[in-house]
Design brief:
By secondary structure, the protein is α/β, with parallel strands linked by helices. The chain has helices at residues 16-24, 36-43, 54-59, 96-108, 125-138, 176-187, 200-230, 235-242, 264-274, 280-290, 292-306, 335-344, 358-365, and strands at 6-10, 28-32, 64-67, 78-81, 114-117, 147-150, 169-171, 194-196, 315-319, 348-352, 380-385, 402-410, 422-423.
Length: 424
């Protein structure tokens, strides 16, 4: 293997940018993205995902070339693809970004190069879908002229403790020698260590079940929340009591969005169905979690009815729009389900999120949002705390924004016990 490594990272989002920055500390590195606005922002030393600090970006200035120019990829030896793998409106895997990224790499691929995928996929996508694209565009032969690897991303957006280098990394390669090279490449930046999987398909499967497992466990406690609500029992109190057993898993009910947990199980389900097997538990978990936004709205409506507050024309403030706390990521956020169902019931909705980008929210979902408390009104019929941003837990009590008989609903159960009228 060529030890004079030159690394290219394709896709400079939540996954790709931290990776490119770390590799730039060790090797000549190109960070490539087709979004020229994103490229310009990064060249100016700013990352609006907040995954990489201004200081870290400045530390690799002159070492990391940020580019949207295909020519800058031509002499690279290792290509790492970190583009998103979403689902379509029917929850079917959408491999379009992977195909386009593979075509881009294929145009510049040279003999001896290794193409490594980090995007979450179902088993077989790298070798059965991406590699044929690389062969067709490049005219080169797989495992003779070029090679492949798979090392699934494990980025946790907004987490400043478990950052890229502190999370153990799975690696794999299309031949034993390539597997060793891919493992050595990542070992150079991952201080937590690596795990070399037996094959690319094993690595792909390991990644997709990580998030499917979390999805199913959260679906279980979401179902418990529905049951205990009917029994007038505090779900969090039950989970706290059960958690005193050493092997009880500490999951909490809530909305399941984002680019991983709410999406990846559909990739595994798709592959399972292609083999003729219908995955009942995986899809049941998805149905429960996808329905939690509507469930929250139904609970809010019941609370309004009990206070003789009309639903039609009611004014509700939704706190938080990002998919998780203290993070600007709005991808696949399930808070939009709450907003949609409220509006469907004739409710007027104000949205406040100091972390989200107004233009991005308008572009992605068509909603206007407030990012400052001074923009908010008073005398709301209801307030729904949907995301546990630190700003929502400091300063004013949200009851001051309510009518005297208004409803405060705490989806995340983070407010002091007794302050909210209802919680998930």
């Amino acid at each position: 293997m060529n030890k004079e490594r030159k690394v290219a990272v394709l896709g400079l989002g939540y996954v790709g940018l931290p990776l490119a920055v770390e590799f730039a500390k060790k090797f000549s590195t190109v960070g490539f993205d087709i979004n020229e606005k994103r490229v310009q922002e990064l060249r100016e030393g700013k990352d609006n995902t907040l995954e990489v600090s201004d200081e870290d970006l400045a530390s690799v200035k002159g070492k990391l070339r940020i580019s949207a120019n295909l020519d800058d990829l031509k002499d690279c030896t290792h290509y790492i693809v970190t583009v998103p793998t979403p689902v379509d409106r029917y929850n079917q895997p959408d491999l379009t970004p992977l195909k386009k990224a593979s075509e881009t790499v294929g145009k510049v691929l040279k003999k001896g190069a290794i193409v490594i995928y980090e995007s979450t996929v179902y088993p077989g996508v790298t070798e059965d879908y991406c590699v044929p694209v690389l062969e067709k565009v490049s005219g080169l032969l797989f495992n003779t002229d070029f090679f492949a690897g798979y090392s699934p991303e494990r980025i946790n957006p907004g987490d400043k403790e478990r950052t890229l280098t502190k999370i153990r990394k799975i690696t794999s390669g299309s031949t034993p020698e390539v597997a060793a090279e891919v493992n050595e490449l990542y070992s150079s930046i991952i201080t937590a260590g690596t795990f070399q999987a037996a094959s690319i398909k094993v690595a792909e499967a390991a990644k997709v079940i990580e998030n499917a497992q979390r999805d199913i466990n959260i679906a279980f406690v979401n179902e418990l929340a529905k049951i205990f609500n009917r029994l007038h029992i505090d779900t969090r109190a039950v989970l706290e009591a059960a958690g005193t057993k050493w092997n009880f898993l500490p999951f909490q009910p809530g909305l399941v969005g984002g680019h991983c947990i709410g999406v990846d199980p559909y990739y595994l389900a798709q592959k399972a169905q292609e083999t003729g097997y219908h995955p009942e538990i995986i899809l049941a978990g998805r149905r429960i979690n996808d329905g939690m936004g509507e469930y929250v709205v139904l609970q809010m409506i019941r609370q309004l009815n009990r206070r003789a507050l009309p639903v039609l024309g009611a004014k509700v403030l939704v706190l938080g729009l990002t998919f998780k706390e203290n993070c600007p990521d709005i991808r696949n956020t399930k808070v939009v389900d709450i907003i949609h169902h409220l509006k469907d019931q004739g409710v007027e909705v104000d949205i406040y999120d100091p972390w989200a980008s107004k233009p991005e929210v308008v572009h992605e979902y068509g909603y206007d949002i407030f990012t400052e408390t001074t923009e908010l009104g008073q005398n709301y019929d209801g307030v729904i705390l949907a995301v546990a941003h630190k700003q929502f837990l400091e300063g004013e009590s949200w009851r001051t924004r309510l009518k005297p008989n208004g409803v405060l609903y705490d989806v995340k159960a983070v407010l002091p016990v007794g302050e909210a009228d209802a919680r998930l």
